[in-house]
Structure formats: structure tokens, C-alpha cells
């Protein structure tokens, strides 16, 4: 659906975007991430035809943006960070105006506007002046104008910026639904949105693509060691012995949770300190030594960085008679990966001509 091949944008003898190269297939929702000034908005403006690349080629559904820009643009729906709305118009009149601009045939305009209003939940607000709408509904109108001509590719720049939590959830759901019939390139600074609705992540830093991967494969791409947190019921030393004897296990660390539960020495009850050894022996209920029925929490690392050791852990501990109360794979979060890829070097500001303003906000 979208091919971006070796695209660069040169600003005042410096490259704002460096040989960007990626493609998108039909039905994908791709999260486009990067710090301020990384080149996200410049890239999206080139994809949508608002800027011409200095070098490289962009194809939308087989149409070259350089050679057939009109055909390519007809395939695209674009929502900038600030929706391109006319506040003095009503929702319905604005969408009809956009339908004319998008060359929607006159006989189809009424149906197209009605479908966009229905899909974006704008029923009952058709006659309302856009100025009077809440920010959340203005975003809905912005999305409605982007899908009005039924484009194959949607390019969305910070669609949930400035919304309240309820509105964010609603817009995310709308984008997820739109992804069923459209290819979506979504730029955002809200990383949970990527996990919530995207099936691929593209990270750009200092004008270059530094990561292009599916969310579930991010840890493997970053060379992450396979690590599992465990809670196992049974005697501590025996459990440690069993796990450390497994060839596939590299390291076993005990997670110290006892310290948070222990009574500090200064707060120990004086009456207990005064009791004699005979009294203690006569009161076994006061003993605090671990028993075989207690559980131990551990962090277990694979000997081979990428090997999944969960099955081996399960069978070894089950065979020894020690039930696993909890098992969870530990992995780098998207936030960790983003910071690792974008903070190794200080980002250089993207140079923009005076007539163009790149608002990677």
C-alpha cells in the first residue's frame, strides 16, 4: 500500500530526514514514534504530498507521489495534529465542502457524509457549529474529513493530543475500527497507544529509522535475555537446587520480599525479648522459621539469551512436587526500548525553511 524508498529531505545543506526506507501492507496499523525534531512530521508531509523529498521515491498503492501526485493523494486521508476545520461552519456543511474538494461525485456526497457522521459518532451534531464542539468532537470531525472519500491509507498525526482520558479511549477505539478497512500510519507520543492498537512499531531518531518491528518481537530485536519471574511453593534451598541443576538455566536470583514484612528490631515487643528459652520452647506458635509450605519468589535467566525456558521450569518443578503459583516472562517495555534507541546521542534539531514549520509536538 505504501512504499517509502530512500527518502531524504535536505534543509539548508543539512539533512532533516536521512534515507527513510519502509513499506506498509494493507490492513496494517503502524505506530510512528520519535522524539521531538526526529523528522516524523516531515516524513508524514512528504508521504501526503505536502512536501517534496530532496531524494527518494514515495508510492501509494502503486502511484508515484512525484509522477502522479493527484492519483496518489486520492488514496490518502490525512489528519494533521491540528485538525483542518473551519470553526464557523456546521459539521454537515463542512463535510460537504470537503467532499467537493475530494472530488466525491455529487450523487454520492450525501451518502458519504452520512456514513462518515455515523462511523465517527457525530449523529445529532450535524447542524452544530464546529466552534462550539468539544475538542474530542473536533477530533472526530477531523477524522471524518480524513475518511470521507474512503481512502486506502490514513495518516494520523497525534490524533489524541490534548484529549481527556475518556475521549482518548473513544478515539483509540475509532482508530482500531478504522484499521479494519484502512491502512493506518499513526504518529503519537503516547506509548500505551502503540501497545493498544498497533501491530507494528516504527521508531525514528535524528532523521533515521532505528527500529521497524512488531511489538511482540521488540525484546528479541533488542537482544533481550529471556527472563522469568517465579513464585514457587516449597522449601527454598531445594527449589534453588532444582533450578540451578537445569542446563537451560543461566542464573537464579531470589527476590527479597521478606524485608518488607519483617518487624524492625527497634519495634520488637519487649515481652518477647524477656521470655526465657524455656518459654520459647513451650510456645512453638511464635516460631518464624520458614516451613516447606511457604513460597519463594525468584528471577530466572536463560543460559541461552533467546531460549524460552518456561516449559523446562514447569516440568522440573512439577516433577519435584513444587507447585508454581505464578510464572511471568519479564521483558523490556516499549518505554525502555524507546529511551534506549533515542537517548544514546543528543538529538539534533531538524532544520526547517522559514516557509515551513515542522511541529513534532
Task: Indicate the CATH class of the largest domain.
Answer: Alpha Beta
CATH topology of the largest domain: Rossmann fold
Distance between the termini: 27 Å
Radius of gyration: 29 Å
Sequence stretches where pLDDT stays below 50 over 5 or more residues: 258-292, 346-361
Quote the average pLDDT: 79
Q: Name the beta content range.
A: 15-25%
What is the name of the CATH superfamily of the largest domain?
P-loop containing nucleotide triphosphate hydrolases
Order of SSEs, N→C? EEEHEEHEHHHEHEHEEHEHEHHHEHEH
> How many beta-strand segments?
14
- Class from secondary-structure proportions: alpha/beta
Strand arrangement within the widest β-sheet reads 6-7-8-3-9-10
Q: Assign an overall shape.
A: elongated
Tally of separate helices? 14
Number of domains: 2
**In the CATH classification, which architecture of the largest domain applies?**
3-Layer(aba) Sandwich
* Biggest β-sheet strands, sense, barrel: 6 strands, mixed
Q: Roughly what percent helix?
A: 25-40%
InterPro entries: AAA+_ATPase, ABC_transporter-like_ATP-bd, P-loop_NTPase
Region (Disordered): 260-288
GO molecular function: ATP binding; ATP hydrolysis activity
Biased composition (Low complexity): 260-275
Describe this structure in words.
- InterPro entries: AAA+_ATPase, ABC_transporter-like_ATP-bd, P-loop_NTPase.
- Residues 2-231 form the ABC transporter domain.
- This is ATP-binding cassette domain-containing protein.
- The strands form three sheets. This protein has a six-stranded mixed beta sheet with strand order 6-7-8-3-9-10, with helices on both faces.
- It contains 14 helices and 14 strands.
- It is an alpha/beta fold.
- The protein folds into two domains: 2-222 and 336-342, P-loop containing nucleotide triphosphate hydrolases (Rossmann fold), CATH 3.40.50; 225-257 and 292-330, Alpha-Beta Plaits, CATH 3.30.70.3190.
- The radius of gyration is 29 Å and the shape is elongated.
- Helix 3 (91-101) crosses helix 4 and helix 4 crosses helix 5.
- It has helices spanning 40-47, 69-74, 91-101, 106-119, 135-147, 165-178, 191-197, 218-221, 236-244, 258-261, 270-274, 277-282, 310-320, 334-342; strands at residues 2-11, 14-24, 29-33, 55-60, 63-64, 76-79, 153-157, 183-187, 200-205, 208-213, 227-233, 249-254, 295-302, 324-330.
- A hairpin with a 2-residue loop joins strand 9 and strand 10 (208-213).
Amino acid at each position: 500500500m505504501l512504499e517509502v524508498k530512500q527518502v531524504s529531505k535536505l534543509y539548508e545543506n543539512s539533512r532533516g530526514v536521512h534515507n527513510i526506507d519502509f513499506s506498509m501492507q494493507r490492513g496494517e496499523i503502524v505506530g510512528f514514534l520519535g522524539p521531538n525534531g526526529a523528522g516524523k512530521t516531515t516524513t508524514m508531509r512528504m508521504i501526503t504530498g505536502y512536501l517534496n523529498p530532496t531524494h527518494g521515491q514515495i508510492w501509494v498503492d502503486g502511484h508515484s507521489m512525484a509522477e502522479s501526485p493527484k492519483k496518489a493523494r486520492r488514496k490518502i486521508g490525512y489528519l494533521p495534529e491540528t485538525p483542518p476545520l473551519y470553526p464557523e461552519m456546521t459539521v454537515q456543511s463542512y463535510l460537504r465542502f470537503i467532499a467537493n474538494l475530494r472530488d466525491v461525485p455529487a450523487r454520492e456526497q450525501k451518502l458519504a457524509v452520512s456514513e462518515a457522521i455515523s462511523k465517527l459518532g457525530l449523529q445529532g451534531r450535524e447542524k452544530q457549529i464546529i466552534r462550539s464542539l468539544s475538542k474530542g468532537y473536533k477530533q472526530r470531525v477531523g477524522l471524518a474529513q480524513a475518511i470521507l472519500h474512503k481512502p486506502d491509507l490514513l495518516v494520523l498525526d497525534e490524533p489524541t493530543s490534548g484529549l481527556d482520558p475518556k475521549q482518548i479511549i473513544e478515539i483509540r477505539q475509532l482508530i482500531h475500527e478504522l484499521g479494519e478497512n484502512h491502512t493506518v500510519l499513526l504518529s503519537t507520543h503516547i506509548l500505551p497507544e502503540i501497545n493498544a492498537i498497533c501491530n507494528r512499531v516504527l521508531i525514528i531518531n535524528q532523521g533515521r529509522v532505528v527500529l521497524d518491528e512488531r511489538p511482540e518481537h521488540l525484546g528479541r530485536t533488542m537482544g533481550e535475555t529471556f527472563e522469568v519471574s517465579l513464585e514457587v511453593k516449597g522449601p527454598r534451598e531445594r527449589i534453588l537446587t532444582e533450578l540451578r541443576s537445569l542446563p537451560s538455566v543461566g542464573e537464579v536470583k531470589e527476590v527479597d520480599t521478606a524485608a518488607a514484612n519483617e518487624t524492625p528490631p527497634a519495634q520488637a515487643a519487649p515481652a518477647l525479648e524477656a521470655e526465657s528459652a524455656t518459654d520459647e520452647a513451650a510456645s512453638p506458635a511464635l516460631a518464624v522459621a520458614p516451613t516447606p509450605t511457604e513460597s519463594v519468589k525468584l528471577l530466572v535467566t536463560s543460559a541461552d539469551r533467546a531460549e524460552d525456558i518456561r516449559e523446562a521450569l514447569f516440568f522440573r518443578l512439577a516433577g519435584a512436587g513444587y507447585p508454581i503459583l505464578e510464572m511471568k516472562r519479564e521483558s523490556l517495555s516499549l518505554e525502555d526500548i524507546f529511551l534506549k534507541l533515542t537517548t544514546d546521542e543528543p538529538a539534533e534539531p531538524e532544520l526547517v525553511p522559514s516557509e515551513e514549520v515542522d511541529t513534532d509536538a
